[in-house]
């Protein structure tokens, strides 16, 4: 039986903008420097592309006790980072050798693939799809190749507003021109369906920055002052990266600071309490077949989340309601669950999933649901911190467990719960 508490991704990518926040191994997902050298991530916003550039950044930021040797860079100079020589070699054998664009000129098809992927607004999704195809080409009898044949081959072509003006076939032509070996694992149709599947169902993964634990444990005045000085530094480069990612995502760039406070107002106690906000952690997309095989529900039975720690990236697929052991049908959410039904519907439509007819959406629109659905709705609300919604769902369960005799004509279960609570 597969241990769903530590699932290894088939492939993953770190969000493009997020590379200015944390330095992670692009093969295994571990934080470079591990838990021993958290200050390495203070220079992530400089985005050094070589060991010499990293050494210079560490010197300029006066980061002491961190050796540039704790990061291994792609030997061809593309700037990909790894936690050691073993992962760098393993990445090349798993397909990076085909996708690497370090020594290539601007007009090379592989470079143009990345340029056009960025212009499409689906850069991370296109690169993740390319990594899967490259892995399948390198290992035709491996898990990636088998997943392509079973889970992807029969899917429909991608749809939805995020694909308007996007031509996966054109990017496939560039991709296979730069890496002919990828033709062994698919064609333009397979690539198009794969990208659509990634957009619809790839698992977003997040992990805290190692700087969070370092900040919360910093008791020395010099350590605290170093972090405050780093937070007060001019971050125009980082803001530019945020604006660039916003354009990639098709959103308007945010013109102000995320917390709305001036840098001069920083106090270390406040920073330590809200360290997760001040020190942005890892954000990526992962191919987790076990999670991607499940249907969507806005009140899911299960949630996929990155396992904690700074080691290799692993994803846990766990019940939202930890007390439940059996499920008639397992589901996951493919949108933010802490928003109303209209926002959820809009998000799902953009991902090409169409109208949602899950039990929670029907409950939000019409006010009725089964006991099992209400348990999922209550558990989801508790996980989101929507305590009033959780209470209403729990009350609905109690009402159904007793009887329907209090129902008035044309009254829904949701209205009955509200009326009984008021009475």
Number of helices: 18
Strand order of the largest sheet: 1-5-4
Q: Which parts are unreliable, with pLDDT below 50 for 5 consecutive residues or more?
A: 256-263
Backbone structural class: mainly alpha
Give a count of the beta strands, DSSP E runs of length 2 or more: 9
Mean pLDDT: 86
Indicate the percent of residues in helices: 40-55%
Shape: globular
Rg over alpha carbons? 24 Å
Give an account of the 3D structure.
By secondary structure, the chain is mainly alpha-helical. It has helices at 51-60, 85-99, 109-120, 123-138, 143-152, 168-178, 188-201, 210-217, 221-232, 236-248, 268-273, 275-278, 289-292, 341-350, 359-366, 371-384, 387-402, 413-422; strands at 11-14, 72-73, 81-82, 203-207, 282-287, 295-296, 302-306, 315-319, 331-332. A hairpin with an 8-residue loop joins strand 7 (302-306) and strand 8 (315-319). Helix 4 crosses helix 5 and helix 17 (387-402) crosses helix 18. It is globular. The model is unreliable at 256-263 (pLDDT under 50).
